[in-house]
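Figure caption, in words: inputs first, then the predicted bound structure.
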Amino acid sequence: MWYKTLTKNSWEVCKQCGKRFFIDLNEGTGIKYCSKECSKKARKDAQYKATNTWHKRNRKRLSDYQKRRKKMQRIKALKLIGNKCIVCNTTKNILFHEVYGKLHTVTYDYILKNYKDFVSMCKYHHQTLHTFAKNREKYLELENMFAD
Ligand SMILES: [Zn+2]
Ligand SMILES: [Zn+2]
Ligand SMILES: [Zn+2]
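Bound structure (zinc ion present):
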């Protein structure tokens, strides 16, 4: 009878391409995809998503590690070079200034390796120094201030 075949069969929507397809419930339920291609593609997509989240998580873990490492290096540098601004003695916002360096966007690896060439300065005085540094005379004046 025609309605018997109707109840045995079911329309499903393919989870991959959204196409409606007909499944024979005699062959089993739980078919999610209209074709082998779609089920293959879905498996690939799931795999891609999984590796993607893994990479994301891993990247975060790596940056956490780098942050931790930087923190440790900073503590080390503060111990080696000093934790006080050589001008005002504050311990806040300490930066490391390479005394004879020119451009000094340097890494902590570099600072720790050459720590003898660095002095600790607060953000304010460091900025002041670099402003003064453009003016040679004033810079020397400031350098003399640091001498004792
Ligand atoms: Zn499909
Ligand atoms: Zn200062
Ligand atoms: Zn500097």
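The beta strands are 9-13, 20-24, 94-98, 118-122.
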